[in-house]
Amino acid sequence: MLAIQSSSTTKPKTLQPNILPCQIHHSGPISIAERYWNPQPNNTTTATSSSAQSQSQSPASNEVTQHFRGRKLHGKTINLPSSYTGIVAQKTTRQIQTPHQTSSTNIPANDAGYDEEEEQSLPTETFILEQQATFNSITTWDHEKAPSSEEDVYIRGIEEWIGFAESIHAYDIPKTAAES
């Protein structure tokens, strides 16, 4: 298991993560030059249709463009819901020690459906993820066009995860007799 802890030494920075369509063979710190990566919002409009006959123009406010090593990239920014916060975390070798818990039952040992081994649980190793930064949106990039949720696995995964989280944390409001 993993447990998230805030960095005890500094306040987490706010970042804008980017998922680029390339592979970089480097692992470690780099000196960041802001002047080389400054995505700009697109000033174009996209056609959206609510029916086959009518079309309306709506601004593509979440689409951005940027050049990376001479190649034009098209990006789409996905904003997290206001009640969500994304984190950038680093795995550590530190562990949280959890007390060994056993449950006591009054089931006789000679009961055919009872297995004593089921009652004994192994201690769980819980490693610590240290929070390095937070984010409220994430941008995914593609070469020819802005990524879409139909084609991009990252966008689809983020949208599905948010939908799943909202579903499991939602609750039904019981109907009163007057509403039925």
From TrEMBL:
- Which is a Gene Ontology cellular component entry for this protein? ribonuclease H2 complex
User: Which CDD domains does the entry link to?
Assistant: RNase_H2-C
Region annotation (Disordered) ranges: 1-22, 34-116
According to its UniProt entry, the protein's GO biological process terms are: RNA catabolic process
Give the source's domain of life in one word. Answer: Eukaryota
Q: Which InterPro entries does the UniProt entry name for this protein?
A: RNase_H2_suC (IPR013924)
- Annotated Polar residues bias: 1-17, 79-108
Residue ranges annotated as compositionally biased, kind Low complexity, are 38-62
Name this protein carries in UniProt: Uncharacterized protein
- Native organism is Cercospora kikuchii
